[in-house]
Design a protein that fits this description.
The protein is of the alpha/beta class. The chain has three domains: about 110 residues, Up-down Bundle (de novo design (two linked rop proteins)); about 240 residues, 3-Layer(aba) Sandwich (Rossmann fold), CATH 3.40.50; about 60 residues, no CATH class. It is about 45% helix and about 10% strand. The chain has an eight-stranded mixed sheet with strand order 1-2-4-3-5-6-7-8, with helices on both faces. Strand 5, helix 11 and strand 6 form a beta-alpha-beta unit. The chain starts with 7 loop residues before the first helix and ends in a 7-residue tail after the last helix.
């Protein structure tokens, strides 16, 4: 789906932020106005215009809050957070660029300002992980309006003594993939989950959000070692949440988005407490995603060899005129802790479901996009190789306006299919009439 820009990468990223407007993550006019001011394929112009929009909308929020218009403030802070995230997106060619941390922090701060005004229980958490912690957000679908700001949760005995609602409610763990943040997840799928009665825990692992920006921990292929501490956390959350939330250990779902479609599948192969897994979209082999665009081209044979200098030279030339390659390889080298394109490709080869996928036993939903340019043909390969008893394949089409990667222009439709399937798996009757 082409929008404003001729360059497909710029067009997709614009569509990505506009798509979140359905759940309050953007305003269409603000997005289009910003896009019209951006120079085609110019990373600096992209940063400048989105950052200007984010700063302006954040000021709207500050002003609304000062006048006690809390709903307006919350909505504006959410939009500002997403615009800051969008502004930072193309800065990663130089990981030392000071604007990366500053703009990312602005995105997180705007989101936290919005979160303080949520009408439901929300809590930022720190999840113990290999001598450090992973940042997460816990959302409860209970509308805890009785918990007015400033009240002592320990005194809310009516809630603490009535866990019947929470005991029957499924819990969904959600993580992103190659380039997302957990703040973005709120407008992508968390609102839809809360509307349907799901507790949710989002988190950022190695390579994602704060973990790469501040902790500088790069990607790892064995993602089950990341999610297992997260599952431990939610099952023992009485140590961390105030008030604690009862979690049914038999109704824990996992949703992985974008490259998270590989990460969640890998996790489900080894972490057997995951009762249902959603891959949005399915990813079988990450290496293939870096080289697929060069198939049937003169450069294809170069990738088949092991000449590092030749591969690096070929990629440097390609990055000079191909915006998608320029961004993907620059960002990839940062988050994979790779010195060169060749090094990145070698590290990405570990990210495969080969000899792993047959270990997945839980019900699995594999999502696919008709015109996916990130992982073309991979979701169907994932589905075809699954051996679990319960599996479903959902192809989103051009006719539905959902043909792009992760269905970013059709989030209502995507969430409908995710949660209707998940409801059937968990027999979740909370929102049904």
């Amino acid at each position: 789906m082409k929008l404003v820009f001729n360059d497909p990468t710029f067009s997709f990223q614009l569509l990505r932020v506009i798509g979140s407007s359905y759940y309050g993550g953007a305003d269409i006019g603000e997005c289009l106005s910003s896009a019209y001011r951006i120079k085609e394929a110019d990373f600096e112009s992209w940063y400048t215009e989105w950052n200007n929009t984010a700063m302006r909308v954040n000021k709207y929020a500050d002003n609304c809050l000062s006048l006690h218009h809390t709903q307006s403030a919350q909505q504006a802070y959410l939009r500002a957070s997403n615009y800051f995230r969008t502004a930072e997106f193309f800065l990663h060619e130089n990981p030392a660029d000071s604007r990366i941390i500053k703009t990312w922090e602005n995105s997180v701060n705007s989101f936290m300002n919005a979160a303080k005004l949520f009408p439901f229980y929300f809590e930022p958490v720190e999840i113990p992980y290999e001598g450090t912690t992973l940042p997460g957000y816990f959302y409860s679908a209970s509308t805890l309006s009785q918990f007015a700001k400033g009240k002592d949760y320990d005194n809310q005995m009516s809630y603490k003594n009535d866990n019947s609602y929470n005991n029957t409610k499924p819990t969904l763990i959600v993580h992103t993939g190659f380039d997302g943040t957990q703040e973005e997840l709120y407008s992508q799928c968390i609102v839809a989950a809360l509307q349907r009665g799901y507790n949710c825990l989002t988190f950022e692992g190695p390579e994602q959000g704060r973990v790469i920006h501040k902790q500088q921990i790069p990607f790892r292929y064995d993602w089950e070692k990341v999610v297992t501490p997260v599952v431990d956390f939610i099952l023992t959350n009485e140590k961390y949440l105030k008030p604690p939330i009862s979690v049914n250990p038999n109704r824990i779902g996992l949703l992985g988005i974008s490259l998270g479609g590989y990460l969640a599948a890998r996790t489900s192969a080894y972490e057997k407490r995951i009762a249902a897994c959603i891959l949005d979209d399915g990813v079988f082999n990450v290496y293939d995603s870096f080289v697929w665009g060069y198939r049937n081209s003169p450069i294809e044979r170069i990738f088949e060899g092991t000449n590092a200098d030749l591969i690096n030279t070929a990629m440097e030339v390609t990055m000079g005129f191909n915006i998608s390659a320029r961004w993907a390889y620059a960002h990839g080298m940062w988050v994979f802790d790779a010195e060169t394109p060749f090094d990145l490709l070698q590290k990405s080869k570990k990210f495969t479901l080969e000899n792993v996928i047959d270990k997945i036993q839980c019900p699995t939903l594999v999502m696919d996009a008709q015109c996916d340019n990130s992982f073309p043909a991979q979701p169907k390969k994932v589905y075809d190789n699954l051996t679990c008893k319960e599996k479903r394949y959902e192809l989103f089409t051009e006719q539905e306006g959902a043909e792009d990667h992760c269905h970013i222009a059709a989030l209502s439709l995507a969430n409908q299919r995710i949660f209707d399937w998940l409801d059937d798996i968990f027999d979740n009757k909370y929102h049904r009439i």
